[in-house]
Amino acid sequence: MAKSVKSRKGRIVAGLVLVSAVVGLVILLQTANEQHSWSSTEAVVQERIKSGKNAKVRVEFPLPGGGTHVTTLSENGSIHETGTRVEVRYDLEDGKVVDAALADNDQGFWVMGVMLGVVILGSVVMNLVVWSPARPTPEQASPEAP
Residue 48 forms beta bridges with which residues? Predict the structure, then answer.
């Protein structure tokens, strides 16, 4: 196996996996940071919608201009029952909500971050193995004198 990993294809694959995982982690961190910069407010859960293993909540929250906004958000964190108050982050453009998320929705970012971190760590180790110089065989290490 070590021979096939150290081949040209093995080196290319190991490098691509490392680059892809690092790019994925950077995008994940940018997205999480962007979401944390959004405005936040308190919302009221109007309805909890469960479909299989997925759960969503319909929430209503006030907007800075005086109106209210109703939207359905994925529930990845703790369970929110109807009538409970939750913290919602939202992004406004031209006075309209273009994106929103529950403020306690960070579990998805943590899970993906840890998974990508493990992939990066494994890929670094694989690249060290792939790009390390070949060890001399016993015959090459101690040539016999004629």
Answer: 57
